[in-house]
């Protein structure tokens, strides 16, 4: 399942990269992703909708785009199973 998810994700990134340019893999460890964020960061504009705003490292390179992930806000499958 994880292989299928990765292949599907990579396939879905192709049109996004054509639209906004090459941002690498999109993962936290990728220097190309860091570079893209640094080059496109504008503290006076909202982040693009595809940016994972809760990414901890985003605080370092694009602090106005960062948001704290709120735990407990969303229910898990276990919450529904307990009913």
What's the structural blueprint in terms of helices and strands?
Blueprint: H1 2-20, H2 31-40, H3 58-61, H4 77-81
Written overview of the protein:
The protein is mostly helical. The chain has four helices and no strands. It has helices at residues 2-20, 31-40, 58-61, 77-81. The chain is globular, with a radius of gyration of 16 Å. The protein starts with a helix and ends with a helix. The model has no long low-confidence stretch (mean pLDDT 86).
Distance between the termini: 28 Å
Cα gyration radius (Å) = 16 Å
What would the principal axes of the Cα set say about the shape?
globular
N-to-C order of helices and strands:
HHHH
Biggest sheet layout? none
Average pLDDT metric: 86
Low-confidence stretches: none
Helix content: 40-55%
Total strand count, please? 0
From the helix content, strand content and strand pairing, which structural class follows?
A: mainly alpha
What percent strand? Answer: under 5%
Tally the helices. 4
User: What assembly state would you assign to the polypeptide chains in this entry?
Assistant: single chain
Give a brief outline of the structure.
This protein is mostly helical and 83 residues long. Helices cover 46% and strands 0% of the residues.
Key features of this structure:
single chain; 83 residues; mainly alpha; 46% helix; 0% strand; globular
């Amino acid at each position: 399942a994880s292989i299928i998810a990765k292949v599907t994700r990579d396939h879905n990134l192709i049109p996004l990269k054509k639209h906004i340019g090459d941002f690498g893999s999109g993962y936290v460890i990728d220097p190309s992703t860091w570079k893209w964020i640094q080059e496109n960061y504008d503290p006076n504009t909202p982040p693009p909708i595809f940016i994972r705003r809760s990414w901890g490292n985003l605080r370092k390179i694009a602090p106005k785009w960062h948001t704290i992930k709120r735990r407990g806000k969303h229910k898990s499958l276990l919450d529904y199973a307990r009913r």
